[in-house]
Amino acid sequence: MDVIEVRKQFPILDQNVNGKPLVYLDSAATSQKPLKVIEALDDYYRRYNSNVHRGVHTLGTLATDGYEGAREKVRSFVNAKSTEEIIFTRGTTTAINLVASSYGRSTVTEGDEIVITPMEHHSNIIPWQQVAKVTGATLKYLPLQADGSISLDDVENTITDKTKIVAVMQVSNVLGVINPVKEIAAIAHKHGAIMVVDGAQSAPHMKIDVQDIDCDFFAFSGHKMGGPTGIGVLYGKKALLNQMEPIEFGGEMIDFVGLQESTWKELPWKFEGGTPIIAGAIGLGAAIDFLEEVGLDAIANHEHDLAQYAVERMSEIEGMTIYGPKERAGLVTFNIDDVHPHDVATVLDAEGIAVRAGHHCAQPLMKWLEVSATARASFYLYNTKDEIDVLVNGLIKTKEYFGDVFR
Ligand code: PLP
User: Fold this and answer.
1) Considering 15, 227, 335, 340, which has the largest number of Cβ atoms within 10 A of its Cβ?
2) What is the sign, positive or negative, of the torsion defined by CA atoms of 313, 177, 379, 363?
3) Which residues carry out catalysis?
């Protein structure tokens, strides 16, 4: 992968911020967008903006082809069996909420268990808390090992015949842990439970094969993988989606509407009430084309190298704590002794470096780490080792600055 060529596809990267060349290290929050995506959105709005599935006019047909064509790209991207299994949502959060509100609330009953982990993003905690509250089920947490990873022995010991749903992130947005979701799914199935995978931090960075993982649901967001905001995906096994009720009712998702009763369209449209996210889906399709042209394996290798290099260089700084296991996805979460992470992010911002500070929507994990907040540098296919050097220099500056203040 030629990172210099890749960078040319991201116009936003070519600018100064606070007088310094932008170093964008916040892709886990949202990624930058390649020209291909920007142009696809522009093309849709300039040339064939129209509603889908309704009219027979030419623009309507073009828009429908674009929207449904994007669904096929997503199907192939995650290796689902059929486009019926690909539901467009607003993002990971909406996708998980759909599973929780529809499947969860209708299937789980009092005394059942839902199993998640303490490293989950709030989007994969709160929907399950709500299901547990409404149904009287118990929300159980898999224990974490000292480095934040999950042991399969613990999975075996935690999931029981009472477990109905297991919901785990494939890659942690804080620790960079890569969870063995395929093995966890097998254990869940042994006990008759279903497996929900939060793929928000994995789908943008590695090859996904939902049939190989054998998960029942897989959720991800377009904006973290070069696509626009406002579009996401819920993959679900057809048999489960067929037995689920929609949670949003109105136009687009109906087959027949009577005065008292109505019927729903078939999959996947019964879950897509209202005018869908047409431009978003088309933009996501373009993002998938882009990622596949570069190659998901090449992207994963590049980010792996960046993360290893970042850990190595950042470990040279005294007072640096890096969270998470040695083998990690492309992000590094850290704290510097005696400096609040918000101050770290503020000093780095003055250097043109964008990192995130806070609880990263993972307050239970912050509690487990015994910190209130951390800073995080997250990488994508357009980042370089030179940028990590700039980050390290910025961190040294941060230390010096606050060292002076405290003296
Ligand atoms: N899950 C994980 C692991 C995430 O990192 C995020 C976003 O940061 C989400 C879920 C929520 O994604 P969205 O805000 O796009 O719905």
Assistant:
1) 227
2) negative
3) 361
